């Protein structure tokens, strides 16, 4: 999808050469001074009661005198907040699915607040017109291909526009990989996708195979991969946006390209959806794609342990005990609790980067779907500041999460008679006990865990990846880069104050 940003008054939007106009109408009254055909249409529609005041209410018009685009959809955008703008654009684009509609004018000029609404509108527009085509040759090409975004002040909206573009790139890369069937998204193919991103300046990607992973002593990860004839991959991605000395954020994405459950095999119903079990990995790839466009001043490492979880003569069996890279032994009581087994070794590996924070992202538990549904991602953290930063990033990006507890009592059920721990702890509090398992491998780390089992994809007729939590992660990284910048500029101020008083000895 191709976006273009323009300063446009309502009058200028009326003469825009596009196939359709989608005009966001705020609750706030339209200034009396605006009197062209578009402003008049809006005012009349509101006055006559044809455009109700709820965000998302629409009025579709056709061949309006004085307006160049033959289709005009007016949509209510409430208070003009990001959330209302998203609702409005989603409703508006749904009415604009005509074949031959390629170029859309998205008019935000009547809204007062620019910023967050610009990003949210772009994201909603991309989301509403997204179509998966890779393994579906009969799919119709994406309806809206080109979007002219009209705002009252393009200079003021530029930064949000750039962020919006990068987010859409990242979200769509995540969707693409998550949507691909498992035979078109093997660990090796995921690694190729990462390598491709690695060609961007400032990026470096290393891919480890079974031998290297065995050499590292990742016995838990190896155990999960054993039942599959697809060889595992451990993908290590680097983005350098700040000084070498600046501690990185490490993102760890669960990359199970298909989860049958292994010997503890899953029931047949909806098992196809387990192709989405690499949604965490897809979100790391998507986040790196956004970083490539935004280039924030921060260092980021992406780690993706990737393999299939299959039943086989070679597969790991319930009761088998394996030794993780940390040295702790694990009794694999249920081979379907495989995500934590590949993540625990990746978390141990993460420590070598002396990270400022480590965030793992995983479609980890069905229990999290029961707890939070499809609205909020489950968020766990041992650090209050990290938890607060993630919560805020999610709020700002309209990609919500909710903090869950990590009381030690929840770890009781992980005790084993035959190993340092078991990999499951019964049905109660399943999302939390899974997090407690991971915590045993992150004791020295500023760590957070995002359980995206309920939020990474939709089931039913709208089956498909959501691209979440790319918006949350990108927002967190941008916020973190800004925080870092503020800290280092505070440092600079201190030095120059010293210089002024002449107290500094030695050469500058
Ligand atoms: N990938 C699944 C989690 C999952 C299940 C995500 C349903 C989305 C929808 C994970 O590997 C898994 O199988 N977890 C088990 C854990 C259990 C065996 C302790 C689960 O949630 O049932
Ligand atoms: Mn599983
Ligand atoms: Zn899984």
Compact description:
The protein has helices spanning 10-14, 37-47, 82-94, 115-129, 154-179, 187-197, 210-215, 219-225, 279-294, 339-350, 366-372, 384-396, 430-439, 470-501; strands at 2-7, 20-25, 58-62, 71-76, 103-107, 146-151, 203-208, 233-240, 249-253, 255-259, 299-309, 320-323, 329-332, 357-362, 377-381, 401-403, 421-422, 447-451, 457-458, 464-465.
Looking at the overall shape, the CATH architecture of the largest domain is 3-Layer(aba) Sandwich
The strand count comes to 20
What's the main sheet like? 9 strands, mixed
The structural class is alpha/beta
Oligomer: single chain
What is the top-level CATH class of the largest domain?
Alpha Beta
Task: Give the proportion of residues in helices.
Answer: 25-40%
Q: What fraction strand? A: 15-25%
3D structure, described in words:
The chain has helices spanning 10-14, 37-47, 82-94, 115-129, 154-179, 187-197, 210-215, 219-225, 279-294, 339-350, 366-372, 384-396, 430-439, 470-501; strands spanning 2-7, 20-25, 58-62, 71-76, 103-107, 146-151, 203-208, 233-240, 249-253, 255-259, 299-309, 320-323, 329-332, 357-362, 377-381, 401-403, 421-422, 447-451, 457-458, 464-465. With 508 residues, the chain is of the alpha/beta class. It has 2 domains: 2-153, Leucine Aminopeptidase, subunit E, domain 1 (3-Layer(aba) Sandwich); 174-480, Aminopeptidase. The strands form 4 sheets. Strands 7, 8, 9, 10, 11, 14, 15, 16 and 18 form a 9-stranded mixed β-sheet that branches. A 6-stranded mixed β-sheet has the order 1-6-5-2-4-3. A 3-stranded mixed β-sheet has the order 12-13-17, covered by helices on one side. Helix 9 links the parallel strand 10 (255-259) and strand 11 (299-309). Bound molecules: ligand BES, manganese (II) ion and zinc ion (ZN). Manganese (II) ion is lined by residues 259, 261, 336, 338.
């Amino acid at each position: 999808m191709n976006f273009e940003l323009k300063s446009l008054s309502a009058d200028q939007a009326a003469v825009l050469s596009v196939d359709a106009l989608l005009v966001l109408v705020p609750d706030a009254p339209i200034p009396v001074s605006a009197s062209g055909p578009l402003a008049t249409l809006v005012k009349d529609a509101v006055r006559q009661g044809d455009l109700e005041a709820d965000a998302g209410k629409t009025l579709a018009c056709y061949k309006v005198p004085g307006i160049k685009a033959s289709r005009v959809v007016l949509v209510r955008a409430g208070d003009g907040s990001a959330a209302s703008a998203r609702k409005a654009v989603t409703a508006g684009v749904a009415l604009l699915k005509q074949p031959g509609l390629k170029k859309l004018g998205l008019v935000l000029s009547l809204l007062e607040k620019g910023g967050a609404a610009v990003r949210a509108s772009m994201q909603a527009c991309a989301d509403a017109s997204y179509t998966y085509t890779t393994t579906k040759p009969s799919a119709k090409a994406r309806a809206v291909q080109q979007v002219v975004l009209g705002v009252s002040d393009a200079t003021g909206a530029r930064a949000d526009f750039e962020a919006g573009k990068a987010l859409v790139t990242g979200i769509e890369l995540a969707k693409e990989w998550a949507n691909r069937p498992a035979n078109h998204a093997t660990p090796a193919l995921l690694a190729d996708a990462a390598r491709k991103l690695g060609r961007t300046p400032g990026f470096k990607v290393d891919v480890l195979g079974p031998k290297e992973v065995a050499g590292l002593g990742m016995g838990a990860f190896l155990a999960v991969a054993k039942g599959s004839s697809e060889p595992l991959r451990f993908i290590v991605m680097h983005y350098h946006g700040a000084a070498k000395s600046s501690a990185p954020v490490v993102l760890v994405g669960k990359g199970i390209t298909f989860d049958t459950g292994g010997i503890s095999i899953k029931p047949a119903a909806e098992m196809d959806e387990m192709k989405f079990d690499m949604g965490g990995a897809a979100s790391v790839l998507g986040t790196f794609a956004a970083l490539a466009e935004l280039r924030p001043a921060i260092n980021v490492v992406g780690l993706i342990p990737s393999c299939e979880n299959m039943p086989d003569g070679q597969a790991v069996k319930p009761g088998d005990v394996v030794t993780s890279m940390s040295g702790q032994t694990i009794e694999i009581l249920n081979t379907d609790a495989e995500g934590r087994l590949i993540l625990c070794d990746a978390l141990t590996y993460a420590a070598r980067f002396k990270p400022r924070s480590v965030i793992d992202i995983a479609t980890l538990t069905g229990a999290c779907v029961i707890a939070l549904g499809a609205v909020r991602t489950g968020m766990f953290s041992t650090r209050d500041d990290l938890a607060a930063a993630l919560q805020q990033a999610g709020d700002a990006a309209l990609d919500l999460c909710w903090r869950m507890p990590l009381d030690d009592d929840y770890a009781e059920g992980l005790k084993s008679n035959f190993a340092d721990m078991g990999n499951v702890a019964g049905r109660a509090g399943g999302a939390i006990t899974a997090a407690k398992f991971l915590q045993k491998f992150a004791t020295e780390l500023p760590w957070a865990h995002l359980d995206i089992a309920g939020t990474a994809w939709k089931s039913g007729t709208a089956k498909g990846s959501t691209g979440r939590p790319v918006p949350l992660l990108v927002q967190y990284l941008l916020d973190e880069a800004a925080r870092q910048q503020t800290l280092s500029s505070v440092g600079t101020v201190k030095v120059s104050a010293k210089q002024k008083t002449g107290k500094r000895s030695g050469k500058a």
